[in-house]
Amino acid sequence: MSMQEYIEEAEQALLHTYNRYQIVLDKGRDVYLYDTDGIKYLDFVSGIGVFALGYGNKAYNDALKAQIDKLIHTSNYYYNLPAIQAAKKLKDVSGMDRVFFTNSGAEAIEGAIKAARKYAYLKDGTTDHEIIAMNHSFHGRTFGALSVTGNPKYREPFEPMIGNVRFADLNDLESVRSQITDKTCAILLEPVQGEGGIVPARPEFLKGVKALCQEKGILLILDEIQCGMGRTGYMFAWQRCGVKPDIMTTAKALGCGVPVGAFLMTEEVARNSLEAGDHGTTYGGNPLACAAIEKVLDLFEENHIIENVREVAPYLEQRLDQLKDRYGCILERRGTGLMQGLVFDGPVREVIERALENGLILINAGPNIIRFLPPLIISKANIDEMIEILESCIEPSETE
Ligand SMILES: *Cc1c(COP(=O)(O)O)cnc(C)c1O
Question: Among the atoms of ligand 1, which is closest to the Cα of residue 190?
């Protein structure tokens, strides 16, 4: 069948919740994807920050195949070896004390919110605690995660939300302080906002929020689902400025494609929040998912993934800055590590579509921002290749 015929079939069967780009992806190798017509694309999205190791990593694929033949699923009523190993390794790289595995990012946020509310409940016996989240944040599409997502457009049709959520501005400590009440149990933020437009939290801001939390007995929840797992040149973005959260969420690159997430907490929160019977999941942390996590964490070390991010990210910044200087339609470059955004003076959909026609996969973060989330194994040559294609997709008339 032709790609167009596949797309027509898809639109007959799938719920239309995405305006999809008009390609059917079929296979991946290294940092390239191929569609069903065999056309090759350089991938600067990695499945929205998921496929950090690149496609077709043999060691990763072999580990999954071996686990499939051994045991795919049990239940959380029993222990399994991959979950034990994955939890130990995740503790090591995060410095957190306790892990709960989920199936997705949104579900990790749900668990984090429940843990924070239970912690506050055990502390003062009341139930109407509040959470402060950030404007322009994104935490997922389930009700709890949506309730703390700072984009009214995503929330409005589905009101009422879970309630008792207040919003403050990222990088504005006074705005956070002004939302604190004696009911505040947690402050939730992304160390680098992803979906909301690639906006890094400033180290002084993170430190200020942490100090506020300590002063007022409020838990700090950091959402590392997009910015974590090496993307910023640190395993978790908060490690850059040493602002350790009480609760942390991760997902996306954690399983490098196997659907999995986790929320982690300090021993202090673990001891005084969720206990047996309070939370659960059928699939979360099953042997297949945890075999993926375990292998991903091993390969990060063996393949020096974070070192590669630190080496190539400054080059990506430099090349994007050059584009910004050359084209009047590009207003700003922002981001950190291999999580970068180019802010345009208008919608970027057409530029992204032209890039796709020229063999480059990019994605937006909001209508006017192109987001760059390449696999963490990219080389400087891949960056040159990306820039060359992207440049050919920006209208010459857009030059300053
Ligand atoms: C993607 C994302 C989520 C939601 O994760 P899902 O796996 O899509 O549910 C939550 N927080 C952040 C920061 C994300 O980027």
Answer: 13
Determine if ligand 1 sits within 6 Å of the CB of residue 231.
Answer: no
Element (H, E) at 62: helix 58-70
| Residue 390 near residue 323 (C-beta atoms within 8 A) | yes
- Is the CB–ligand 1 distance for residue 255 below 6 Å? no
Residue to mutate, 252, 281, 363, 371, ligand 1, most ligand atoms under 8 Å from C-beta: 252
**Distance separating alpha carbons of residues 4 and 22, to the nearest angstrom:** 8
Token readout for 395 is: 């209208």
List of E strands, 251-315: 261-265
Nearest-angstrom CA–CA distance, 307 and 164? 42
Write out pLDDT tens, residues 299-332. Answer: 999 999 999 999 999 999 999 999 999 999 999 9
Ligand 1 centroid to residue 400 C-alpha, Å? 37
pTM for the full predicted model: 0.98
Cβ-contact 289, 283 below 8 angstroms: yes
Nearest one of 309, 331, 308 to 320, comparing CA atoms? 331
What is the spatial distance between Cα 176 and Cα 199, in angstroms, rounded to a whole number?
Answer: 17
